[in-house]
Amino acid sequence: MSAAPGAPPAASVSIPVPGGPIFELRSLASRIVTLCWVEVCKVRHDRSELYTRAIQPALWLLIYGETFTRIHAIPTPRGISYLAYLAPGIIGQSALFVAIFYGIQIIWERDAGVLTKLMVTPTPRSALITGKAFAAGLRSVIQAAVVVVLAAILGVSLTGNPLKLIGCAVIVVLGSAFFSCLSMTIAGLALRRDRLMGIGQAITMPLFFSSSALYPVKVMPGWLQVLTKFNPLSYEVDALRGLLIGTPADVTLDVIVLVCVTVAAISAAAALLPRLAKG
Amino acid sequence: MTVLAPGDGTAAPPGPMAAVACEQITYTFGTHTAVDHVDLRIEPGMTFGLLGPNGAGKTTTIRMLVTLLKPVSGRITVFGVNTTARPMLVRRMIGYVPQLLSADGALTGWENVQLFARLFDVPRKQRAGRVDGALAAMGLTDAAHRRAATYSGGMIRRLELAQALVNAPRLLVLDEPTVGLDPIARTDVWDYIAKLRDEFGMTVLMTTHYMDEADAYCDQLALMHLGHIRATGTPADLKASLGEDVTLDEVFRHYTGGTLDEAGEKGGIRNVRRTRSTARRLG
């Protein structure tokens, strides 16, 4: 035990001086990996959330999806059943629901003193937020995988192309990273768990219904079509649909939009982090 | 890898380098001045106690020192490095244990320490050894793979010490390390802190409002009251300056004109904030 843990101060005399874009990037990558690792540990220790969160998407597919497939109320692209059309929307929705309450976790960490300790490690605020955003993304991907399996069981023929599936995972990570940062931004403004719960509940349904998750944009009233353009969930669902069931989609545009809003949301959440830590 | 060389603009003025040097630091919350032009110097290898009632400004001082708050005016250096100019570098030298018991209950003890080893960039090959070593040093080897939610208060505090240790910090900063622990756990935690100081020659800065602990474990003390440092010195010197058979409590009363408990009631804004945040945690 002589070498560990508090190796004599002499060992820490040669402290690497951080600097340069390569150091910063490596450090950011390392923080993302670390915070994702924490998320995996938590999922491993307690899988119950994985199952309880699978209930709602299962109901959407089983009850809503099956019923609306039967009544043919919603026009879908030729040769695609409504259930198949709906499945990517429900993946987007379940990822949204995971991510939008991520701010509650950071408030909990603040209240428990964990956040303070994280902020005293050599981790820039933006790296901390980015790490958490990707951790939320990872959890959403695990959740999305459950929905993909559910959809496959219900007979929806999704793509088997591994590259497209990886693309879907990337889209889900990006979408969840955005919504978790949105949630952490609101956490930085609301500062309290109960307030954030209220706000989270107030915005999830409008986000969901004003996106193309349930129905094509062209059947919406004009004003809603405009709103849809400003809803990142629409771009997430559009890309997922294109990749999973092959509907026409502008995946490049979707990715560009998602990357831009994610970067903006990371900046906003990082800027508000000190306020959250103090509050 | 570059190595920090003296004279790169962050080094302290000539003379033996202090572990911590605060020059005229001030911090205000709105109109309330929590820390008022405080000077503090801590020599390497020392166990330094910052003593005072709730609201004295101890925690605010600590939070400035660990780079969580920026002083409104004044300057702090940690081993010659300016906390405002080079916060990331300062953080690499510090192990910090905040006042709240704050391990992540959803992770095991081992994972909690591993998390900090990663966040402090402990090289991959050394990580497992350092994590096991830190847990062993804090007597947590047997509980390492249990979730921290199952730990007692004293064990969580020891786990936090292990988290702070895994980076082999030069300065260990402990904010009220034994508050909220039962007497047996308090002694236990102190035995572990004393062991660290003796085995690794680490510099320790801690705040406390337990006079008996300050007397027994600190080499040097600073008495803080309403944002000011009222007196500094070794526990023996502080007591001797007032005559024979004086307790530290009496020393404190002499310099602040009140007992710890009375002074605590004048705590002002910080006390209000603390009560609020406690209420929030419970609600």
- CATH level-3 fold name of chain B: Rossmann fold
Q: What Rg of chain B do the Cα atoms give?
A: 19 Å
- Shape by Cα distribution of chain B: globular
- Report low-confidence residues of chain B grouped into runs of 5 or more: 1-14, 263-283
Could you walk me through the main structural features you see in this protein, from its secondary elements to its overall organization?
The complex is a heterodimer of chains A (279) and B (283). Chain A is mostly helical and 279 residues long. Chain A is built from eleven helices and no strands. In chain A, helix 2 runs antiparallel to helix 3. The longest helix of chain A has 29 residues. Chain A is globular, with a radius of gyration of 21 Å. With 283 residues, chain B is α/β, with parallel strands linked by helices. Chain B has one domain: 3-Layer(aba) Sandwich (Rossmann fold). Chain B is built from eleven helices and ten strands. In chain B, a hairpin with a 2-residue loop joins strand 9 and strand 10. Chain B starts with 19 loop residues before the first strand and ends with a helix. Chains A and B meet through helix 1 and helix 5 of A and helix 2, helix 3, helix 4, helix 5 and helix 6 of B.
